[in-house]
């Protein structure tokens, strides 16, 4: 693995996702649940997440791309967003939504997305994150569901997350020592 240090095994990830799904099912006992994954880091997380629900649950799965330029962020808000798109496009009014995020760090982007979704009239919205890095938070935002909390500033790769488009295919989470 070279400069990769194993952080969470495939089995640890699966166990935590099963527990997270139980939390979501408790909070949303209704049949219909709309899941929105933030591309690209959440696609593997979302894929495994949906497979842990029972077959009686109606899950509607969507993805969101959020394009911004790093220079367009300030300490607590996004100044310029070039595009926010949900694939496929649909009406969110009155829907129960769980937003799935790979990493929640500053909270600025996720807070922006949650605000945007609330403006669309969602009934309820909660955020689930694979990795929470609260020490980096720049806004008052806290995910509702957290698989793992990380307290250092190393890059975490694998399980769909990358460093310069590498390591997404790892079936576990690793810390990358630069």
List keywords for this structure.
178 residues; Rossmann fold; single chain; 9 strands; 3 helices; alpha/beta; 6-stranded mixed sheet
Explained architecture:
This protein is of the alpha/beta class. It has one domain: Rossmann fold (3-Layer(aba) Sandwich), CATH 3.40.50.2020. 21% of the residues lie in helices and 34% in strands. It is built from three helices and nine strands; from the N terminus they run E-H-E-H-E-E-E-H-E-E-E-E. The chain has helices at 10-27, 43-50, 108-119; strands at 4-8, 32-38, 58-68, 81-87, 96-104, 124-132, 145-149, 155-157, 173-176. A six-stranded mixed beta sheet has the order 4-3-2-5-6-7. It has a three-stranded antiparallel beta sheet with strand order 1-9-8. Helix 3 (108-119) links the parallel strand 5 and strand 6 (124-132). Helix 1 crosses helix 2. The chain is globular. The chain starts with a strand and ends with a strand. Residues 79-83 have low confidence and may be disordered.
